[in-house]
Design brief:
Catalytic activity (chain A): L-aspartyl-tRNA(Asn) + L-glutamine + ATP + H2O = L-asparaginyl-tRNA(Asn) + L-glutamate + ADP + phosphate + 2 H(+); L-glutamyl-tRNA(Gln) + L-glutamine + ATP + H2O = L-glutaminyl-tRNA(Gln) + L-glutamate + ADP + phosphate + H(+)
Number of domains of chain A: 3
Number of helices of chain B: 15
Helix content of chain B: 25-40%
Largest interface: A-B, 30 and 43 residues
Keywords (chain A): ATP-binding, Ligase, Nucleotide-binding, Protein biosynthesis, Transferase
Structural class of chain B: alpha/beta
CATH superfamily of one domain in chain B: Amidase signature (AS) domain
Subunit structure (chain A): Heterotrimer of A, B and C subunits.
Number of helices of chain A: 15
Shape of chain B: globular
Strand content of chain B: 5-15%
Number of strands of chain A: 15
Strand content of chain A: 15-25%
Radius of gyration of chain A: 30 Å
CATH class of one domain in chain B: Alpha Beta
Family (chain A): Belongs to the GatB/GatE family. GatB subfamily.
Protein name (chain A): Aspartyl/glutamyl-tRNA(Asn/Gln) amidotransferase subunit B
Oligomer: heterodimer
């Protein structure tokens, strides 16, 4: 049987507000336990929530970023369940009337094609704290620093068909929210957490199969693995004539498997009802317009601009616009060197290559955009060859200074002096009589191949510094 | 001194007839003498009160005194007081000392009022007789066998017995007005959102409202001046401007249209209580007011709607009392479930548990539409009834309660009979309207109250009507024979 996978994703995005969604406490990651928990976060008796306007602003930015309907009157609800890291015994969330309604956005697939993914809704809610089960002698510790951190829960339509699309979706989402500056998107610190709804159906069937929900998958790689694993598990069940149980499962990255969550971890009836401590959030068209006017250029627009203004391929444009930091870096390099094509190559191949090998982010690059631009300028003005430039880049990466400093210090400036080059060419011809004879006897087609030997010899003699174009010209004149 | 109103005491302080320290000692002595019989106070802190009185006297000496500076008052023990236990009448919070003041407390402190102590109440403000307190029932100063009403029974009894000249209360379904009526004092439940709920431990968030309890409308106005106003930390507090609630107290009532809801004068109203209300209405007529019979056709929905909405909100408001961070925690919990169940089993009393169960049921999947949603629809109808009535009349008048205070224990086995006590008061909470109870007579030696309900934010008008009534009557000056002896 050919199975089609149907996937919908729920992403919990931590919004980059300075304070919590309903209290004035800071939201800095990694603080000492319970140092960022106020009386409101602790749900002390009599404490009341006050909505952080910035969280609303960010949510509306997101809604406009995916071309969604904005909830002009959204309502907070209480989602009731007991857990020690949920101090009030309910989470303030949005249920019937979310701040962001139906929207959609485009994802780029590796084969260069694109696909529209529908967004069902996105709503504001508060995060819970953390339960710590180690180091407390059989008891549990509670850290409420995270309690009340603003989250935007983004629910996709079941439009995703495989792991690669899921990852592309998440990357596109990551790109969008970091462009908007509404989240740091840091998955390792839990700023983007993902629940995966996944079901299988026979290829061609209209109705959906029974789904399982996989909770809290926290990296692109785990999303991919969890989907692959869950596909196999459900396919095995279906092919052996069984039925998939609708349940919540947990992805265990260490064992690379999903398993059902204990029933205690799954609350059945959240008794949602409108939060009486907060008024409905009513926004008007003027507010929405104001937010719209303040939106930065978004990834899709930037991608298209890169393709048009810089004549980049769809793929290159997509890679270079993936993150705002990278796109800005690239545009700075272009600004300095003036050649968008070569800049694109250098940023993607040399720079990203080094960054990836060293697991560094673009913001941590030891070579700045202007430094890289200057290096490329030296290629363009024939000071050095592309090959030498790679050496220079290597040295720049090691912190040895600017391109010009390194070229000067190492004497790497390309030899374009006709007299010096002529001497070298003459010497190579004199030392390789047999090859010269062979060359002169050959026809044009063969000569094209054989000339490479002489070029190589000259480059070697010049320690790579000879201007290859001039060497070719000289050889063409002398080997007649 | 204890016979004086807040306004009179303020004059005495200003004229240096006595100091705030003397006044505080005087009322503290009253509490020490009478509280063993009445049980109106849960916590008294004379040292803290005297320290505040010393500071108040300095303000008075410096000429920096307002009308409440140096006036001793009591707070219902549901308002958080920094450094002073705030129990909510529950074992659950028997050990809870808040590190913050409720906004109401902070504002009254800022005005120079002196906190004598914290008054008894039905547990988490759930009750109409003050019999649901972990600290025991409060007795009615007019008759020790009668209840003082609830849930602000301690505040009402404390003021009636002159243990404090005024007190704060909270009113979710009548909890200021009903005990005020039973104890022969004046109580005001302001418009929802007029007084901040921050630090006022929540029973039913969409209905709870704090307000003053005192001898006179004038005193209530003085307290409300300090209590009312927008609080940026309570999103439901109103930004509508406040006013000087004492300014219009003496306005004439000529031409005032007073609505009498047919539904509030029918079966179920004790005849003698009805007579007292009628006598009060004659007084208004005598002052030139016009009495207009009106109808609030959805009144029958009031009790069912309230007893869905209030428990529904309460059931989740009280989820935070889980033994994890503060308050009662059971001994040696075996696991998380055991911690929750035993902590809450031990910490909450029967009525609180009943409302948590009712509310949880009403919000459950499959029942939400039939109960909570329906109740909200009923609430809208009730509100619309009032808005329509206020097209015809300026204020609405009727009895505060169906009769005078009942005997202790008379209704404890019959929760529905107890709930019927609130039949006339609940609607103002559901509609968010201001309501008052004003002493209007005695039935068998027990006080009864006249209820006044006004338009949203018409506190000044209600206080004006009540004050004019009190200028012509003396029910509000009557004192129980001796503290609490019948």
């Amino acid at each position: 049987m050919q199975w089609e996978t149907v996937i919908g994703l729920e992403v919990h995005l931590q919004l980059a507000t300075r304070s919590k969604i309903f209290s004035g406490s800071a939201t800095t990651f990694g603080a000492e336990p319970n140092t960022q928990a106020s009386a409101v976060d602790l749900a002390m008796p009599g404490m009341l929530p006050v909505l952080n306007e910035q969280a609303v602003h960010f949510a509306v930015m997101f809604g406009l970023g995916i071309d969604a309907e904005i909830g002009m009157r959204s309502v907070f609800d209480r989602k009731n369940y007991f857990y020690p890291d949920l101090p009030k015994g309910y989470q303030i969330s949005q249920f019937a009337d979310p701040i962001v309604g139906r929207g959609q956005f485009e994802i780029q697939l590796e084969d260069g094609s694109s696909k529209q993914i529908g967004i069902t809704r996105a709503h504001l809610e508060e995060d819970a704290g953390k339960s710590l089960h180690e180091d407390f002698h059989g008891m549990s510790g509670i850290d409420l620093n995270r309690a009340g951190t603003p989250l935007l829960e983004i629910v996709s339509e079941p439009d995703i068909r495989n792991a690669a699309e899921a990852v592309a979706y998440l990357k596109a989402l990551h790109s969008l929210v970091t462009y908007l500056g509404i989240s740091d998107g840091n998955m390792a610190e839990g700023s983007m957490r993902c629940d995966i709804n996944i079901s299988l159906r026979p290829q061609g069937q209209q109705e959906y199969g029974t789904r399982a929900e996989i909770k809290n998958v926290n990296s692109f790689r785990f999303v991919e693995k969890a989907i692959r694993h869950e596909f196999e598990r459900q396919a095995d069940i279906l092919e052996s004539g069984g039925r998939v149980v609708q349940e919540t499962r947990l992805y265990d990255a260490e064992r690379d498997e999903t398993r059902p969550m204990r029933s205690k971890e799954v609350a059945n009836d959240y008794r949602y009802f409108p939060e009486p401590d907060l008024l409905p959030v009513v926004i008007d068209e003027a507010y929405v317009q104001q937010v719209r006017d303040s939106l930065p250029e978004l990834p899709a627009a930037k991608r298209h601009r890169f393709m048009e203004a810089y004549q980049l391929s769809a793929y290159d444009a997509s890679v270079l616009s993936d993150s705002l930091a990278l796109a800005d870096f690239y545009e700075q390099v272009v600004g300095v060197c003036g050649d968008a094509k070569i800049a694109a190559n250098w940023v993607q191949v040399e720079l990203l290559g080094q960054l990836n090998r060293n697991e560094l982010d673009i913001s941590d690059s030891p070579v700045s955009a202007s430094a890289l631009g200057q290096l490329i300028s030296r290629i363009l003005d024939n000071s050095i060859s592309g090959k030498i430039a790679k050496q220079v880049f290597e040295a720049m990466w090691q912190g040895e200074g600017s391109a010009d400093d390194i070229i000067a210090a190492r004497g790497l400036k390309q030899v374009s002096d006709t007299g010096a080059l002529e001497a070298m060419v003459d010497e190579v011809i004199a030392n390789n009589a047999a090859q010269v004879e062979q060359f002169l006897a050959a026809d044009d087609a063969k000569r094209k191949k054989l000339v490479g030997f002489f070029v190589g010899q000259v480059m070697k003699a010049s320690r790579g510094q000879a201007n290859p174009k001039m060497v070719n010209q000289l050889l063409a004149e002398k080997l007649k | 001194m204890y016979q004086q109103t807040v306004a009179e005491l303020a004059r005495g302080l200003r004229d240096k007839q006595f100091s705030s320290v003397e006044l505080t000692r005087h009322f503290s002595a009253r509490i020490a003498e009478l509280n063993p019989q009445l049980n109106a106070f849960i916590t008294v802190d004379e040292a803290a009160a005297l320290a505040a009185a010393v500071a108040a006297d300095q303000r008075i000496a410096a000429g920096d005194a307002g009308p409440l500076t140096g006036i001793p008052i009591a707070h219902k023990d549901i308002f958080c007081t920094r450094g002073m236990r705030t129990s909510c009448g529950s074992k659950m919070l028997d050990n809870f000392i808040p590190p913050y003041d409720a906004t109401v407390v902070a504002r009254l402190n800022g005005a120079g009022a002196v906190t004598l102590g914290k008054t008894n109440l039905d547990e988490f403000a759930m009750g109409s007789s003050n019999e649901n307190s972990f600290y025991g029932a409060v007795r009615n100063p007019w008759n020790a066998d009668a209840v003082p009403g609830g849930s602000s029974g301690g505040s009402a009894a404390a003021v009636a017995a002159r243990m404090a000249p005024a007190a704060t209360g909270t009113d979710t379904g009548g909890s200021i007005r009903q005990p005020a009526a039973f104890c022969g004092i004046t109580g005001l439940k302001p418009t929802y959102g007029r007084v901040s709920r921050l630090g006022m431990v929540a029973y039913a968030s969409s209905l709870d409202q704090g307000g003053p309890m005192a001898h006179t409308a004038e005193d209530c106005a003085l307290l409300l001046n300090a209590m009312a106003g927008h609080d940026p930390l309570d999103s439901t507090s109103s930004a509508t401007a406040t006013e000087d609630y004492t300014a219009g107290l003496s306005n004439p009532l000529q031409g005032l249209r007073i609505g009498l809801p047919r539904e509030y004068f029918g079966d179920g109203l004790d005849a003698a209580t009805g007579d007292c209300v009628q006598a009060a209405l004659r007084e208004f007529e005598a002052q030139g007011a016009e009495l207009v019979e009106i109808s609030l056709p959805n009144s029958a929905l009031t009790i069912p709607a309230y007893y869905i909405i209030a428990p529904a909100e309460a059931s989740t408001n009280l989820s935070r009392f889980d033994g994890v961070r503060y308050g009662h925690r059971c001994e040696q919990p075996g696991d998380l479930h055991d911690l929750y169940t035993r902590t809450r089993e031990e910490g909450f009393g029967a009525e609180v548990k009943r409302r948590i169960l009712v509310g949880t049921y009403a919000l459950s999947a499959g029942y939400y539409d039939a109960y909570y949603k329906k109740a909200q629809q009923a609430r809208r109808l009730i509100r619309d009834d009032f808005l329509a009535a206020f097209e015809q009349v300026d204020v609405i008048a009727g009895p505060t309660t169906p009769g005078p205070a009942f005997k202790l224990g008379a209704k404890t086995d019959d929760p529905v009979a107890m709930y019927l006590e609130d039949v006339y008061t609940l609607a103002a909470n559901l509609a968010g309207l201001p309501g008052m109870s004003v002493p209007a007579g005695l039935v068998n030696g027990l006080p009864v109250g006249l209820q006044l309900i006004g338009r949203h934010f018409a506190e000044a008008q209600l206080l004006n009507v009540a004050h004019r009534f009190q200028c012509a009557t003396d029910w509000h000056t009557r004192t129980p024979a001796q503290g609490g002896d019948a």
